[in-house]
Amino acid sequence: MQRIPFFKMTGTGNDFILIDNRKRVIDPDNCLEFVRGVCRPRVSVGADGVILIEGDPEVDFRWRFFNADGSEPAMCGNGARCAARFAFLTGIAEKPRMAFRTGAGVVTAELWDKRVKVQVPAPHSLRQGVSATVRRRPFALDFIDSGVPHAVCFLEGAKDLEEIDVERWGCALRNHSRFKPEGANVDFAHVEAPHTLWVRTYERGVEGETLACGTGSIAAALLAALRGGVESPVEVHVRSGEVLTVHFKMDGAARGGRAGKGDAPPPPPFSEVCLEGDALVVYEAELWPETL
Fold this sequence. Notes:
Elements: E1 4-11, E2 14-20, H1 32-38, E3 49-54, E4 61-67, H2 77-89, E5 97-102, E6 105-112, E7 115-119, E8 124-134, E9 137-145, E10 149-154, H3 158-163, H4 166-174, E11 185-193, E12 196-203, E13 208-210, H5 214-226, E14 234-237, E15 243-250, E16 270-278, E17 280-287
Parallel strand pairs: 2-3, 4-5, 10-11, 12-14
Antiparallel strand pairs: 1-2, 1-17, 3-4, 5-6, 6-7, 7-16, 8-9, 9-10, 11-12, 12-13, 14-15, 15-16
């Protein structure tokens, strides 16, 4: 295997390995061991995921996104922001406004230096008031697919959020029968003010708490808005200590409703859903095959 040029980037505490794969230096359909190997901390680059940038005849590029365990989710909000800046810095996208294809659909992005705002596909699969008991502890959850599935538990106070054992309860809820067969990312959230939210996330594919989750921040903000707790724009404070901003438009008649009951839930009443935050380059280097 030849040496592979890459960028290491971070989006609000999620870190990624980004590779220009337009010449197929990596086979995206046969890269499980590569992804697992390069994402290992201390013995290789280490990252939450790998993003392969490929050509697309209709938009600026397409991506293949892989979690550290080799699974391929449809979407990653923080990864999308890093992919957009990587594409602009490397000349793959010529302008700071671009569109690219993900497993969840086409994402549009706009850059202001290191600041990146992406508009994601419309959320779906809303379910409110989901009851789930794990290890004899009951949880009341709201569910939405914001590119990937998220189950959100709203906690009463900041202290509750700080003290919750995200690894223990997140793992148990992530595998609950209510969310089979895919499972769900699990977010614990606290509404501080009408435009301020705090979120901690257990991510499937990483199988642990991450410092940030873009789609989790979107999910928590939208579900909090349905409960009448927040309004756009929402500043979402994540575990890294940084802040993401979630923008959206919402049908006012739906506020505080109980959408999603029954076998055929209506689509969530949101449009123009965007995630904004910094996408930072950590370093640019070459990957040697001996660490895989």
